[in-house]
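Dear support,

We are seeing what looks like truncated structure output for some complexes. This example has two components. We would appreciate it if you could run it in full and send us the complete token output so we can diff it against ours.
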Amino acid sequence: EEQLVESGGGLVQPGGSLRLSCAASGFIFSNYWMTWVRQAPGKGLEWVANIKQDGSDKYYVDSVKGRFTISRDNAKNSLYLQMNSLRAEDTAVYYCARRPDSTTSWSTFDVWGQGTMVTVSS
Amino acid sequence: QSVLTQPPSASGTPGQRVTISCSGSSSNIGSTSVNWFQQLPGMAPKLLISTNDQRPSGVPDRFSGSKSGTSASLAIGGLQSEDEADYYCAAWDASLNAVLFGGGTKLTIL
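Here is the complete output from our reference environment:
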């Protein structure tokens, strides 16, 4: 079964840092673009970042540029999101998701994790 | 405020057909394909319609998608109680170099 499992969420103070992880299983992780999407409490979905199969290309939403870094370790079948200088508005459930290799669409995400909650508060 | 505009709510009775719209611009829907996601209460999103009108394996044919110009639509026929969920459209924006999601539409089955 193709599966994504996020971890690393928690409570952090404003200005603090947190590193999220996403463990992939059931598919060849290194063949896929991967992405992070977040959802603030009671709000809609917001794309955060995505990364190419070999990590050479990365894209970010403007609101996290310079603060968040997406990365991956294909040997460990893992995706990461390093979050620095966290703000209250970063409070959200963070999902990792897979972009299928059969598509030319940049917004097709066919496998999702269950999400991990990040709360930024003093 | 989302660049992709969806109605915040929609409703219908069991068996009815409902349509949810998603309006964008030439830099997103007008030039790329649209995807639709269903999010059941307390769950992760699920891909419902890919590349404008393709149903992934396992998605009932009651769900259909279409695109025309800078707008897209999701149609749900034969409404069932389990269709009560939030629905999101998504598209890449070539000007922003970013994936955009619509604000979401909450579908209520009356």
